[in-house]
Amino acid sequence: MMPDVGGAPETWSTRFRLWRNRQIASSRFRQMMSRWPVTRWIANRKSNQMFHLVSGFVHSQILWTCVRLDLFNVLVDRCLSTNELAKHCDLPIDRMRLLLQQAERLGLILSQTNDRWLLDDAGAVIASDRGLALMVLHHQMFYRDLLKPDDLLRSQYPQTELASYWAYAHHQAPEAIGDENCAPYSELMRESQAMMTDCILGSHHFGNYRTVTDVGGGEAAFLTALGQRYNKPYLSLFDLPAVAKRARKRLEEAKLTQRAEVHGGDFSKDELPADRLGKDDCVTLIRILCDHDDDRVLRILRNLHRSMQPGCHLIVAEAMAGKSGGSRLAALYFSHYFLAMGSGRCRSTDEIRALLTEAGFVAFRARTSTNPLLATLVLAQR
């Protein structure tokens, strides 16, 4: 008879895992593992993984420093010496060399002969993507909110920097938010959406829709890219009035106003333009549901359902929890980000589907994107 823990019988896999944990916890067992070449490799790999857990913050601060000092941009298409970089970054040469060596250990830059340096793959990507660099700088706010992580877990309504920064997440009347509140996060969202947009447009064909309405579309970064790739769909954006005003300007700059319209309002209660939401039309929710708790998500979805006509397509695109490496990383990161933000969570495709079902949507399909770390797509119909 198997032992009973907490009123539930242990499975064989649970009993094996408990036995295995006892062996790994034994210093004698670990010493034995380190003596044999094959098991030594396993033991060392596990030790490295453990050290990654405690050194991750150091890694993030090295990256932040490189971005803050504009190191990657100055190395674009150039190979510079430590002395030249020290002058650019205003650092003593020995400290500059230390930072460069640390950045090389992280795969950000590469050392060359004669004490010279150039970009490695990751550094080249950051230098080419302003939004990614802005997100790196933005993370200092997140890290400060994590200084007392146990308090964060205990607090239902945390008083954090992220909660203040993302004004719409807690505002009682989101439609009343002014430009001074929405401008910082709107710019960050616009600049950081390039990779996300490429991921979505590379994972789904939008060319056959009559219209595409991006709900919570921010400063129209996604619609602008979609409009430049496809000629057919008419473009429609719905967001808070202050954000919608900024979106109009971006669409004008992209010369898309002849085939685009912008509406301001609260997408949890205000009706969307019904003539844009028929069976040949598509509504997109990009990085929207994850920002909100389940009750508000249901209000958003039910409001969309009321506005949409039967057969209208809906696409939810955001980072989702799952079993792939990218999905696991996304859930690991965003779960604590939303905890600090005080609203939202990283859901699985099944959880998204359950919310859509409760709101009245049908014909579900989950689609893995070109980069599951950035987004998974859930498709449904009114």
From TrEMBL:
GO terms for molecular function: methyltransferase activity. PROSITE patterns: SAM_OMT_II (PS51683). Keywords: Methyltransferase, S-adenosyl-L-methionine, Transferase. It comes from the Bacteria. InterPro entries: COMT-like, COMT_C, SAM-dependent_MTases_sf, WH-like_DNA-bd_sf, WH_DNA-bd_sf. One of its GO terms (biological process) is methylation. Residues 180-361 form the O-methyltransferase C-terminal domain. This is Methyltransferase. It comes from Peteryoungia desertarenae.
